[in-house]
Structures are given as structure tokens and as C-alpha cells.
Fold:
Amino acid sequence: MLVGKELLEKSKLLSKKSEDEIARGCGYVGPSGRVLRKNFYRALVEAKGYKLNNSVAGRPGNRSSRGRQAEFKTKVHGNGNLLIGHAYTKKLGLEPGQEYKIDLKKDSKIISLTPLN
Structure:
């Protein structure tokens, strides 16, 4: 990931590209291929000379350098789906292919899973 003067020069060269393409071109891509926008923007702001409270994204000691962290919250999407992500199924030890019965308690809005094995 480029920082400082190198970041400013490279982003200027790529200025006719989309924001994601500029970030990718400057090396702000995670292991999964996801563009690290927040890290990129923080690095740009600091390269412009503004000091931020936290260290530059991607440097040791910065929370964002550890990757995405599970927040243990979710929301109902516009299509009505409720997604429970990999971090949660991993923490519970759930494996692909396992089947569960979904129990709903409408009054308290509690959803529980019961293994079917």
C-alpha cells in the first residue's frame, strides 16, 4: 500500500479512473480482493498533511490492519433476508451442509437454531 508522496503521485496519475480503481492501483486491496476504501481515504488525508488520531491505515497497531471484525449485529435487507455471516457461523462451529430447524418466538423476536442430526 502506497503512502505519503508516492500515494499522492500514483492517485494523481489514476485520477481519471473510478475511486475503487485508484485505490486498487495504489495497493489498497484486502486478501479477499475487497477494496479497502477506509484505509485508502485515511492514507490520502494523511498524505495531504492532516494528522488523524489513529495511525495510518495498514500500519502495525491500527485496528483496521487486523481485517474485518465481527460486530455481532445485522439488519434485515430490503428483500427481507436476514444474513448471518461467516464470522458468526465460525464462532458457533457451524459447518457447511449442516441442517437446522429454525424456531421463532414472535413476541420476543427471538430466533433459535436446533440441529437436525
Notes: Confidence is low (pLDDT under 50) at residues 55-64. The beta strands are 100-105, 110-115. The chain has four helices and two strands.
